């Protein structure tokens, strides 16, 4: 099955470079390029891509607002947004998670990692680099108390101890295989726990599970 991708970045060289790299990969088709967030939203509606690589700082409409609009559109439930970021844009990571982004890529990522990221996100998994995960931990560790809303708190009570453990490991950026090894359970068992977490917490994907884990304090604040 071919993965359909849209690349949104206001820098022509960056946009063209990513598009050429992806277009040369078997099983991936670049169906459009956008120079700003508004164009990205329009392309999402017309092309229904599987994955959108979305820059943050763009004219007309930034990548965060574009991501919000795309993930809020029920007809685009199958479209996943990957934010293109640099360490200079770390302050946007949490906001992008809240907007519904399914992953993050550093702009200086290796070609093989870019291609892998598209496959990972298209398959329904989240992609959050360990370095970005650590920065998220640092960000939330500075906060005196987790911001737990009444609705979230009531849902967290329904989680089993094992589900909380799995959620914490997801927040640290571990893959299903790594979680299975850490908890001495099967890969299938981890998948089942994550499916239940997504349902109970009404989360779109693993990226939103990460956000919920940090906002509610489920994730260990001392984790590195």
Structural account:
- The protein is α/β, with parallel strands linked by helices and 224 residues long.
- It folds into 2 domains: 3-127, Rossmann fold (3-Layer(aba) Sandwich), CATH 3.40.50.2300; 144-216, Arc Repressor Mutant, subunit A (Orthogonal Bundle).
- 51% of the residues lie in helices and 12% in strands.
- The chain has 11 helices and 5 strands; from the N terminus they run βαβαβαβαβααααααα.
- It has a 5-stranded parallel sheet, sandwiched between helices.
- Helix 8 crosses helix 11.
CATH superfamily of the largest domain: Response regulator
H and E string: EHEHEHEHEHHHHHHH
The CATH class of the largest domain = Alpha Beta
Mean pLDDT: 82
Strand coverage percent: 5-15%
The share of residues in helices is: 40-55%
Describe the structure concisely.
It is built from eleven helices and five strands. The protein is α/β, with parallel strands linked by helices and 224 residues long.
Topology:
Layout: E1 3-8, H1 12-23, E2 28-34, H2 37-47, E3 51-55, H3 63-72, E4 80-85, H4 93-99, E5 103-106, H5 111-122, H6 130-141, H7 150-156, H8 161-171, H9 176-183, H10 187-200, H11 206-216
Parallel strand pairs: 1-2, 1-3, 3-4, 4-5
Features:
5-stranded parallel sheet, 2 domains, Arc Repressor Mutant, subunit A, 11 helices, Rossmann fold, alpha/beta, single chain, 224 residues
